[in-house]
Amino acid sequence: MKCVPGLFAAILCALAVLPATAQTTAAPPTLNDLKLEFDIVRAELLKPVSELDDLYGAQLEKLRLDSQSRGRLEEVLAIRSESARLEGGAPDPKAVDFPELVRLREIYQKTKSDRLRVMNRALLPAIAKQKTQLEALRTIQTRENRIDEAISTQKELDRLLALEAATRKELEAPAATTPTLATTGAGSVPAATALKVRVQVDGIGHLHLRGHEIWYDHTRGRASAPGRHEGEHPTFLNDKTEWRPVWTGSVTQRHAAGIALPVEGTPAEVHVRQSGGRGHVVVLQQPTETNDFTAILELRDQTKEGRAFNGSDWLEFRVSW
Q: Which pTM does this prediction carry?
């Protein structure tokens, strides 16, 4: 660039020759950015375990229908008790096992034990990377006197260290033949406390969350159900997992999403942060004891004033607690 005399021209020349790096310095990641990145990695590692839980649930339902068709009431009660345990509920103490259920459970437990060990081995490097990033962020926050933010980062570090200790303990223990049935989709390892969702919305739809499961209930919805406008579109979880809901009327089957909303004690407070889409999402119901610790998100393809859009659009958001 050729500079010409004059103060204004000199300023323009000085700006033009600034190093490119000085003009494009990227801001360091925030705590929420790091947490979301880790939750996405972790959810992908949890996927084989969650899929196994779904498969076991489907096999239990098939066995229940067979027992019911044969009029075997005691077997039906035993299967219902096993299903309740799988979903994190209390089993029926009066239920009595029978050979087919015992064999099915043994296969499930052995397979789950193997998958958990594979998951834990892969999880440790991800934890180590996250620790390094969190420690670097805490250093920056402390140096800049952002004490409240540094405290939040330290709390996340403490949680991560607890997860690391639990993961190492699982790996150091002898291979289990009868692991505890999942209440969070990942055995004794705590599941994620956030979930990123991308779904096609037409009108209004409702996403329910309870424990480690999510499902759609379009009983009170308007227009097409989520993902069903002009086709059948999957819901993307944490950018990678394609959840293809199975609909029975206006409600889908429940899906183990690798999350862990508390289902007892102090209820969690659910928060939503939208990152894409022309519509918006709101927390319609917070989980409480009176609603069986179930959160409901209302997905709206409309303006904030309630005016509907034509057609459908993809809505992207992150729910956390």
A: 0.51
